[in-house]
Specification:
By secondary structure, the protein is of the alpha+beta class. The chain is built from three helices and six strands, in the order ααββαββββ. The mean pLDDT is 95.
Amino acid sequence: MSLKIRNEHYAEKVRASFAAQAMMATAGARLSDVTPGSCVITAPILEGVTQQHGFGHAGLTFALGDSAAGYAALSVMRADQEVLTTEMKINLIAPAQGDQLKAVGRVVRAGQRLCVVQADVFAISGSTETLIAILQGTMIPVEAA
């Protein structure tokens, strides 16, 4: 699928927005890659974001997937637009165990009013990546502040 690039400075816009996100900073997340319609975010599984069994908390998994999908959407918006999540569904399919998580977000369809997105979240342990969650949702373009 070919996505229309509506802002030639999309990467700078995504990186600046990511840098302003306190939630991602708190989680130790990094924006690893951004291309038109795609975004990759990684974060360590820190002790402060685990649940009672020692796995990465589903809240971290969701936050990373939502952000990766949202930034994928932002990468195809006009320069005068931002995006907000209007709904997001998650399927947790394996425990978040390992050293870090990687969320790969992508645009399924970017319309004028809605942008349908998906994200896959992987747990990484050494060189092994395990798919742990699949997210699908909808972003809405809003005027930039």
